[in-house]
Amino acid sequence: MPTPVCRFGRAWGCARFREEAAFGHDPGSRATIYGFRHHLRICWPGVLTAVSIAPANIHDRDLVPELVEGATGEVLGDRNYWDPRLTAALAPAGITLRAPFKKRASDPHPAGSRLLGRVRWRIETVVAQLVARFQLKRIWARDAWHLTSRTGRKLLSHTIAVCLCLERGYPPLQFKRLLD
């Protein structure tokens, strides 16, 4: 999830996170941003299990070993995570990385990629909630300590909301029912 620090036109003069932030591409808005990229690992009910904040110019594949540390089993990713060498490197640790083929037009197994896309809806829902309800893309911090503190509070509140939903017998990501 790309997180801009400031508007692109002001990036050259922006003093916030000068040492940490970088220019990168946001595929959602199809624009170049100056800021960070949040990398998330989410278990099936919708609980965040690992988070990594990296400069926007770091590719998604480079942070996979950090995100899956201590995990076993299957890990789903989007097209940015497709890399046969990475999948082979994670196999000795008992991790199977499943990601759709890099390019949809030349996908050798389009049915498998569509199936992965249907399973990944939970990840997209959690990311959308973090952006809309918890304003994770809004950075008001001016240094790394405050950024991690604010991000941690937002992710913790999301986890508590999931636990409250499960405790009351609601589906795990329907936070609106908690307020009704």
Report on the architecture of this protein.
The chain has 180 residues and is an alpha+beta fold. It has one domain. 34% of the residues lie in helices and 20% in strands. It has helices at 64-67, 84-90, 110-119, 121-132, 144-167, 176-179; strands at residues 2-4, 22-26, 31-42, 48-55, 73-76, 95-98. The longest helix has 24 residues, at 144-167. The model has no long low-confidence stretch (mean pLDDT 87).
Helix content: 25-40%
| Backbone CA Rg | 17 Å
The number of helices is 6
Total domain count: 1
- Broad shape: globular
Write the layout of secondary structure elements.
Blueprint: E1 2-4, E2 22-26, E3 31-42, E4 48-55, H1 64-67, E5 73-76, H2 84-90, E6 95-98, H3 110-119, H4 121-132, H5 144-167, H6 176-179
In short:
This protein has 180 residues and is α+β, with helices and mostly antiparallel strands. It has helices spanning 64-67, 84-90, 110-119, 121-132, 144-167, 176-179; strands at residues 2-4, 22-26, 31-42, 48-55, 73-76, 95-98. Helices cover 34% and strands 20% of the residues.
